[in-house]
C-alpha cells in the first residue's frame, strides 16, 4: 500500500486562542489563555494586573479567516480542526444566555469552510475557559462547572448541528497534570488532591457532552483528545519497565475513563497510595459508564523515556523526561521519533479497538526568509514525511486511522511559550515575538509538498 484509505481526512489543526486574536471583540469575555501573556509556563495575573500579550491579536484569523481558509483549500484540505472559544459564547461562563455575536462568528467560519468543501472538526475546549469561572468558582475545582459546560455544549450543538458532524470535548485533557491553570483553571501550586478532583468534574462534563452530542446531532461523531506521550523504559531493567508503565498510566487513565467508562484499578491504587479521595455524587459513575466516545484522537510530537533512577531525569518543555540516546532533538528540546507514532497508534488501537485520529503533529522551528521571499523548510518536510510514513505502516498493521491534521498549518502563537518564532506552518505569517510585522501570509516550500501528499492520498511520501 502506497496510499491512505479513500475516505481519509487530510488537513490541519488550529486553536482559537492561538490564531483568532480579537480577544475583547463582539462581547467576548476574558479567557484563562488571555491571562497568560507569556504562555502556559508563566504564572497567571489578576484581571487588574493583566498586561497586553501577543495572543491579543495573534495572527488575526478573526478577520482574515476567508484568506486563510482559501489557502487551506489550495493545499487540498478536506478537514480543518479548530476550536470554539467558550468565552465568545458565554463571556463569563455562568451567563444565562449566550452571546449572539459569538455564535454568529462561528456560523460564518463554518459557512466559509462549507464553501470550500472542508469538513469542520471542532474542539469544545482547547486550553481555555472563561476566566471569570476561575475567579468566582475556583475553576473546575467547583462542581458547578459541570452544569456550565453542559449549557455551553448544548448551545453550540444546537446552533451548529447542521454544519458540524465531528466534535472533540477537551484538548489534551491529560495536560492538566502538568499545567493545571491551563487545563482546569486551578493555580499552579494546586495539590494533587485538588487537581484530580477538578479532573473528575471535567470527566463527568465530558461524558455529558458526549451524551448531548449523540442526542442533538445523532449523525455526528464525538471523540476525546489525549496528549499521546508514549514513554519507553530507559533500559530493560524491570524497575525501568515499571517506571515506564506508571508514566504511561498517568495519561492512559483519561482514555480509559472516556472510552471504557470507569476508573481503572491502577488509578484507584494510586489514589489510595497517595491519600487522594475523590468526592463523587450519586450517578457520576453511571454517567461515565454510559458515555463512551466514538473515537480516540491524540497529539503526537515526541516520545520519552522513564527510569527508576531519579538522577536520569532532565527538565523538558513542560514535561520532564529521561534523554533517549538514540534520538535527535528539535530546537525546542523535543525528541524526534517518527517510529514512536507507529508504536503509539498500535498501542492505542490494541487497547481501545476504536478508530483513531492524529489531530496534532508537526515541527516547531525557526524559519529563515530568503531575499527572494522563499522559505525552504526542508526540516519540516522531512519531519512530517517520516511521521506520515509511520502512520501508513500502522494502517498496514491493521490500525483504523480516520485522518491526520497537522499542527498548525499556518504559523500561530505558541501555547507553551507565546512565541511566533516557534513556527509550525506551511503558511508563513509575518509577525514576530515583539509583535511587529505586517501579518502578510506567504507559502513555504512545505506548502507545495503537503499539497502533493494530499493530492496523491499519501503516495507522494518518501520511504527511507
Tell me what the structure shows.
By secondary structure, this protein is an alpha/beta fold. The protein has a single domain, classed as TIM Barrel (Alpha-Beta Barrel). It has 14 helices and 14 strands. The chain has an eight-stranded parallel beta barrel with strand order 1-2-3-4-5-7-11-12, surrounded by five helices. Strands 6-8 form a two-stranded parallel sheet. A two-stranded antiparallel sheet has the order 9-10. Strand 11, helix 13 and strand 12 form a beta-alpha-beta unit. It is globular and about 60 Å long. 50% of the residues are buried.
Topology at a glance:
Layout: E1 9-13, H1 16-19, H2 61-75, E2 79-83, H3 86-89, H4 100-115, E3 119-125, H5 131-137, H6 144-160, E4 166-170, H7 180-184, H8 192-216, E5 221-227, E6 231-233, H9 238-260, H10 265-274, H11 284-289, E7 295-299, E8 304-306, E9 328-329, E10 335-336, H12 338-352, E11 356-360, H13 378-396, E12 401-407, E13 427-429, E14 441-443, H14 445-455
Parallel strand pairs: 1-2, 1-12, 2-3, 3-4, 4-5, 5-7, 6-8, 7-11, 11-12
Antiparallel strand pairs: 9-10, 13-14
Helix pairs in contact: 6-8, 12-13
